[in-house]
Write a structure and sequence with these properties.
Helix content: 55-70%
Number of strands: 0
Distance between the termini: 68 Å
Number of helices: 11
Structural class: mainly alpha
Order of helices and strands: HHHHHHHHHHH
Strand content: under 5%
Largest sheet: none
C-alpha cells in the first residue's frame, strides 16, 4: 500500500511529476515513457504514482490543460479569429502557431503526434477529456467546418483542409534542409501565403 503523504509532500511530488512528465513526453512520447522514469526524480516508489495521477494519460492531460488556454489565446483568439477576413485569419493562425511551436516543445509534440492525444482520450473518463474541448485543435476544426459551410474555403472535406494546414506546421521539422535561417523564413512566409490563398478561392 502506498505511503501517506502530507499536503506539502504531495505538492512537491506533483510539481516534480509535472516537470518530469513534460520533459519525457516531449522528448520520447507518451508510449515510451515509463512509470519508473516518471517517478525516479521523486525518490519514492513507482507504485506511489497512482496517489497523484490515475495514469500516464491523466498526467499528460493535466500538462495540456495547464497550457491550452494560453496557447488558444495566442494562436486562435489573437491569430485565427483576430480578423473577419478568412484568408488573413489563416495566415495569422499559421504564423502564430509556428511561433508557438518553436517556443513550446510539448505542443509541438502534440501537433506532430496527434495519436498521443487520441490515446489520452481513449484511456480517460469522457467527462475529463471534455475539459480539452476549449483548445487550439478543436477551435481550428470548428473554424474550418464553419467557413466551409459558408463557402469561404475550397470545396474539400474539412479534415483535408485541416490536414493541409498541419502540413505547413510540419515544415520546420525539416527546415535545416532549406538553407540558412533567413532563407527558411522567406520560404515559410511564401508557403503560408500560397496555402492561405489556395484554401480561400474568390478573393483578390
Amino acid at each position: 500500500m502506498p505511503p501517506a503523504f502530507s499536503a506539502e509532500e504531495k505538492a512537491r511530488i506533483t510539481a516534480i511529476l509535472l516537470e518530469t512528465g513534460q520533459r519525457l513526453f516531449t522528448n520520447q512520447g507518451l508510449r515510451k515513457t515509463s512509470l519508473e522514469e516518471l517517478m525516479a526524480p521523486t525518490g519514492v516508489a513507482k507504485s506511489s504514482f497512482y496517489v497523484f495521477f490515475d495514469s500516464k494519460e491523466a498526467l499528460y492531460l493535466e500538462l495540456m490543460l495547464r497550457q491550452s488556454g494560453e496557447v488558444k489565446r495566442r494562436v486562435i483568439d489573437d491569430g485565427l479569429l483576430s480578423t473577419t477576413d478568412t484568408r488573413e485569419g489563416l495566415r495569422r493562425f499559421l504564423r502564430a502557431t509556428l511561433t508557438e511551436l518553436s517556443a513550446n516543445p510539448l505542443w509541438r509534440r502534440l501537433m506532430t503526434h496527434p495519436e498521443e492525444m487520441q490515446a489520452v482520450a481513449r484511456k480517460l473518463d469522457p467527462a475529463r477529456v471534455t475539459l480539452m474541448a476549449d483548445n487550439p485543435v478543436t477551435a481550428l476544426s470548428e473554424f474550418v467546418a464553419l467557413k466551409s459551410d459558408e463557402k469561404e474555403l475550397i470545396a474539400a472535406e474539412p479534415g483535408v483542409i485541416t490536414g493541409v494546414l498541419q502540413c505547413v506546421l510540419l515544415v520546420p521539422m525539416f527546415a535545416d534542409r532549406l538553407g540558412e535561417p533567413a532563407l527558411q523564413a522567406k520560404v515559410l512566409d511564401l508557403l503560408i501565403d500560397f496555402v492561405a490563398a489556395g484554401l480561400t478561392p474568390g478573393k483578390d
